[in-house]
Amino acid sequence: MSDTPKKLHIKTYGCQMNVYDSERMAEAMGTKGYVLTDDPAEADMVLLNTCHIREKAAEKVYSDLGRLRPFKEAKPDLKIGVAGCVAQAEGEEIMRRMPLVDLVVGSQNYHRLPEMVAATDRGEKPVDTEFPTEDKFDLLPERPLSARPTAFLTVQEGCDKFCAFCVVPYTRGAEISRPVSRILTEAQKLVSKGVREITLLGQNVNGYHGEGPDGDWGLGKLVRALARIDGLERIRYTTSHPNDMTEDLIAAHGEEPKLMPYLHLPVQSGSDRILKLMNRKHTAEEYIRLVERIRAARPDMMMSSDFIAGFPGESDEDHRASLDLIREIGYGMAFSFKYSSRPGTPAAGREGVPSDVADARLQEIQALITEQQRATQQAMVGRDVGVLFEKPGRLEGQWVGKSDYLHAVHVKAEGLAPGALRRVRITAAGPNSLAGELLAD
Ligand code: 5AD
Ligand code: SF4
């Protein structure tokens, strides 16, 4: 074996959970002597951490695999692995369609990645997408020094909601929450390494029900315990379902200053008829009242959401109900997607909306959201906000950080360091970021 470390290139698709998983896979491979590279051309192993949520994301994996063919031809011992939700959903099928793939590892099995790579050295082509009985988090190596002041921490995985359009309950499986003590220990370690902001991750994170020292804990109680960690300054969580916003969690937003005033709470549609067809189990009115209660607890709460345009059966009237809901809530930001039929989901067999109609509706939703986003950014001008600085900006003497409301903020300042949390007066709003001046401590 040569002394030069082997190089691993990871491409991450999809959500923040995949970003977290990619980091943990890099750490697991680090124990086997692999270091990360941004350049697939110099890699000894390429790992695609995939997303199955919409057809486009899933198909992109196959075209990207095709693009790796010349690399494999140039370097026949290059290992190619597929991880994440496409791996989970399609397993062996990936090997059949793309014989250049050496291993396929599902989202719950990546603690086994190093031994699977060893198996490829013996000429095997392992596929592991079973839901295991052991907990991967118990078996992964400890997280190494973080260079960043922000970190993700997975507290919950899977989803039991079965929205009619969504593959997550099938790819990520049933809801499982990590025990409280493990989460607190991981958070404490992150903080001891310089992390000042933690985003708690889960496909249905506010459905968190973890084993605590005195019985079952919900997310509100977990947040309050995390807030007691000295040196941890900010807590966020994503993604939530409206029906799991408990009174205790809402109250925590009012009582816990470390819990940031930004909440991603997808509603998907503003039409009760469509919400029912989507199996969302709440009405538009219930969502609006819920946001009112959240804003009563935390008046400056910035709301964010996901919307789907062109769900099967959606009429013009249903679409207008979505636009009405967006106007009623006033989002600081939001994401919208054209409906994509996913194999195996309840909505897959239903007759869809014509593609051009769905496109037009999507554009209308996006235009309205962009307008609200711009207005929200403009309204920040003149306000004082907390900013957690992350790194120097592109311009001389410039620093970049995130505001309490998750806006990117630029300032010109001396003597800042990653992890500095300062008050900033916002002086200007651009399309993608805000500019400001440091206020005296
Ligand atoms: N088609 C379009 N968008 C979808 N999403 C989930 N499944 C689909 C689908 N089949 C969107 C939802 C979800 C976000 C992560 O992706 O809005 O909240
Ligand atoms: Fe998918 Fe979210 Fe619905 Fe769960 S709650 S099925 S993850 S859209």
TrEMBL record:
| One Pfam short name | UPF0004
Entry EC number(s): 2.8.4.3
Positions of the TRAM domain: 378-440
Class of enzymatic activity (EC top level)? transferase
What keywords is this UniProt entry annotated with? 4Fe-4S, Cytoplasm, Iron, Iron-sulfur, Metal-binding, S-adenosyl-L-methionine, Transferase, tRNA processing
Q: Which reaction does it catalyse?
A: N(6)-dimethylallyladenosine(37) in tRNA + (sulfur carrier)-SH + AH2 + 2 S-adenosyl-L-methionine = 2-methylsulfanyl-N(6)-dimethylallyladenosine(37) in tRNA + (sulfur carrier)-H + 5'-deoxyadenosine + L-methionine + A + S-adenosyl-L-homocysteine + 2 H(+)
Carries keyword RNA-binding?
A: no
Q: How is the cofactor bound?
A: Binds 2 [4Fe-4S] clusters. One cluster is coordinated with 3 cysteines and an exchangeable S-adenosyl-L-methionine.
Give the required cofactors.
[4Fe-4S] cluster
What is the predominant subcellular site recorded for this chain? cytoplasm
InterPro entries (alphabetical): Elp3/MiaA/NifB-like_rSAM (IPR006638), Methylthiotransferase (IPR005839), Methylthiotransferase_CS (IPR020612), Methylthiotransferase_N (IPR013848), Methylthiotransferase_N_sf (IPR038135), MiaB_methiolase (IPR006463), rSAM (IPR007197), rSAM_horseshoe (IPR023404)
Tell me where in or outside the cell this protein is found: Cytoplasm
State if Membrane is listed as a keyword.
Answer: no
The MTTase N-terminal domain sits at 6-122
Segments forming domain Radical SAM core: 145-375
Binding-site residues for [4Fe-4S] cluster 2, renumbered to this chain: 159, 163, 166
- Residues reported in the UniProt entry to bind [4Fe-4S] cluster 1: 15, 51, 85
Q: Which GO terms describe its molecular function?
A: tRNA-2-methylthio-N(6)-dimethylallyladenosine(37) synthase activity
Relate the protein's function as given in its record.
Catalyzes the methylthiolation of N6-(dimethylallyl)adenosine (i(6)A), leading to the formation of 2-methylthio-N6-(dimethylallyl)adenosine (ms(2)i(6)A) at position 37 in tRNAs that read codons beginning with uridine.
Entry's family note: Belongs to the methylthiotransferase family. MiaB subfamily.
User: What is said about its interaction partners and assembly?
Assistant: Monomer.
This protein is called: tRNA-2-methylthio-N(6)-dimethylallyladenosine synthase
Organism from which the protein derives? Sedimentimonas flavescens
